[in-house]
Amino acid sequence: MIDVGFPLQANLSTLEFEYGKDVFGPKTEKQHLDDIRRSLSDPHVDGPDIVYAVAMDIGKEKDRQDLIERNLLYGAMIFEKGRVGKESVRSQGHVHAISPSCNDSTCEVYEIWQGAAYIYMQETTEDDPGRCYAVYGLPGDVIIVPPHWAHCTINADPSQAMLFGAWCVRDYGFDYTGVRAHQGVAYYPQVQKDGIDFVANPMYHAQPIQVVKTRAYLELGLQGQVPIYTQYEQDPNRFAFITHPDIAKDVWKNYHF
User: Fold this and answer.
1) Is residue 4 over pLDDT 80?
2) Dihedral sign computed on CA atoms, order 10, 15, 18, 23
3) What is the DSSP-derived secondary structure letter of residue 28?
4) What is the pLDDT of residues 116-132, one digit of tens each?
5) Which one of 102, 116, 129, 236 has the lowest number of neighbouring Cβ atoms within 10 Å?
6) DSSP state, 31?
7) What residue ranges define each of the domains in the chain, with the CATH number in brackets?
8) Are 82 and 158 within 8 A, CB to CB?
9) Residues 40, 177: Cα–Cα separation, whole Å
């Protein structure tokens, strides 16, 4: 059982989530190694056939209609243990496309549940990607990706599966164009004996990466070490900055890690 604010279990042998009483959710969608090859440092490597599983739109039955009306979506993910070649298991990377509901790119609010994660982010997918960050998170930590930033999710501890949940806009979309044109994001997470080493992707002209720990997001009204689903229940308006990013435009403009 994972402490996420409602009854939820992860079956790591089937990469499926199991929902408790009065909780809704779909069968997980599986992402295969072949789906992410174009964004790896070496597209021809071996690794787990299924690299991660996604269950989009989960929550308590009592909240289902409210979440629909708010255009707010909660998702759950399982990232497999192990490696893909020299790299840790990860997503391929994308930018949040413009959502029709707000005519803008939107942010994403992650909460790490099990294992360890890096959420890698870069300002653009141009040859000069701007600032590049890898934010490290452990269970209970929250990490926010701002609108328009390219990002990918990385299992920071290949010895075990990594699980997390995330809030996003319901009419989300992914733009892979710039990432795929550069064969991935600006840094590849290669596994070393003492952890993850971020190796520059030569297809970019990137500035040095900054590896940081997560922080509190007091400017967005979030609480530390309280499940983000519980925070929604406490104040259903708390995550309005996801579906209406203009509410926090000054935060995004001066975003710091």
Assistant:
1) yes
2) positive
3) P
4) 999 999 999 999 999 99
5) 236
6) E
7) 8-253 (2.60.120.10)
8) yes
9) 15
Burial class from Cβ neighbours inside 10 Å (0-12, 13-18, 19+) for residue 213 reads exposed
In the predicted model, what is the mean pLDDT of residues 58-82? 98
Going by C-alpha positions, the residue among 138, 118, 122, 139 that lies closest to residue 130 is 122
Beta strands 132-137 and 210-213, pairing class: parallel
State mean pLDDT over 148-171: 98
DSSP, res 222: P
Sequence length of the chain is: 257
User: Mean pLDDT in the chain?
Assistant: 97
- Whole-number Cα distances in Å, 85 to 43, 110, 134, 159, 252: 9, 26, 20, 15, 35
Give the H/E segment covering residue 109: strand 108-114
Q: Measuring CA to CA, how many Å separate 169 from each of 10, 74, 84, 118, 180?
A: 24, 9, 30, 22, 23
Q: What are phi and psi of 119, to 5 degrees?
A: -105, 110
Distance CA 44, CA 28 (A): 26
3-state SS class at 203: coil
In this prediction, residue 1 has a pLDDT band, given cuts at 50, 70 and 90, of low
Closest CA to 63 of 8, 7, 21, 23: 23
pLDDT in tens, 216-255: 999 999 998 899 999 999 999 999 999 999 999 999 998 9
pLDDT beyond 90 at 178: yes
Distance between the two ends of the chain, CA-based, in angstroms?
31
Residue pair 107/245 in contact (Cβ under 8 Å)? The answer is yes
Q: Is the pLDDT of residue 24 over 80?
A: yes
What's the CA gap between 50 and 245, in Å, rounded? 33
